[in-house]
Structures are given as structure tokens and as C-alpha cells.
Amino acid sequence: MIAIVKLLDGWSRWVFACASTPPEIFAGFIQQRSPTVRASLIGSHLDTVPNAGAYDGILGIVLAIALLEALQGRRLPFGIEVVGFSEEEGVRFGTPFIGSLALVGRLDQQLLDVHDAQGISVRKAIENFGLNPEEIPQAELKERHTGYLELHIEQGPVLEKLNLPLAAVEAIAGQSRLSLHFLDAPTMPVTTPMHLRCDAITGAAEWISAVEPLGSRRAWIGRDCRKDRSQAWSGRT
Ligand SMILES: [Zn+2]
Q: Which domains does the chain have, with CATH numbers?
């Protein structure tokens, strides 16, 4: 966490050097705001998933600040606000989009009570960071915001295969996460004929095989079905 604090501190000073107003930090994300004019947001997420590489998220924030710097104080007819989202990937708390939910005013109090693997709640983590969870509502976007731009590395093979260095996306992937539990019917395998057995692992395997082609059949751009984690417990003796 000390590294993140240092990182935010360094970035905040960089943003301040390039902009007319000081940056603010809410719920662990930085935001530099121009309070009076219509404004566009540029940014990305601060956290990343394991093995996502050195540029996931971070590149979008660094480039946003670099764009401000490149303006060299030149005024545009609209404001530019830099935003860096925390806990976008849900790795620590198992719940994604915490920073961006705060930005759109949809971070409810229940979410602040979610705990990480060490038993630290989102609320406590925000306090440990030196911030006040009560100030989260101040992060909510107002009507003067006109758009959001995110520069992000491609984390798939499409552009690489087309030998294209840059592209604009036409759609963005949303996520629905479900936790499914497959239960055995209590039967004795040796004495139960195959057609009367009900095995959890077999059922899960059938479900996985059915979901896989479903994702491929849909014509929607970016549609995919993933089976992230599976665990099996056996109570049978
Ligand atoms: Zn990312």
C-alpha cells in the first residue's frame, strides 16, 4: 500500500503541475476537476489482475496526465479531468468497479462492508489509506461531464493478428459474475446404476461444455463465457 500512496502522491503532484486545479482523492481514486466548465474525463484503472502485464490500466492514466502536460497550459473550449479508478478488477474484495461505481453515484453502503481475504472491509481499507468514506458522494459526476476517454492496451490477439498498432473500440465488455454450486444426490456409487447417479463434477462438466459454444454462437461483439474458478469437495466415504 505504501507504494500506491507514493505513486498517487507523485501523480497528484504531476497533475497539479500540468493543470489549473489541484487533484482530489476519493475512495482511492484520483480525480483532477475543473469545477466550472463542461469537461471530458480521461483515465483508466489503478489496479490490475495477476499477470496482466506492466501496462494494464496504468498506461491509460500516465498518458492522460502526459496529454495534459503536452497542452503546456493551452486552453481548450472544455475542461479535461484525469481520473484513476481503484479496485476496478475486483481482485482484492471479489467485487469489481468500486472506484467507478463511486464516480457514477452507485457505490452503496453494503459494498463498503465487503471484506478481503484478511478480513479488512472496503470501508476500513479506505480509512487505512487516509481517506474518509463519508466523502465518497462528492465524487459523483455532474451533468457538466460530456464524455469519457480511456486509452488501454489490447489484451487480446485481434490487433496483433491484423498488424495494427492502434484502434478505437466499437463496444465494451460488461461482466455478470455468478457463483454456481453443483450438488451430488447422495448415492452409493458401487451399488447405484450409472443412469441413477447424480454426480456434482459430472454435472459441472456438462454445464461447462454447454456454456462454451453458447458464447461462440452469439453474434455480439466481445461476447464470451468464462469459467474462472472451480473447486470440488467430496463428502462421500
Ligand atoms: Zn485494464
A: 2-162 (3.40.630.10), 176-237 (no CATH)
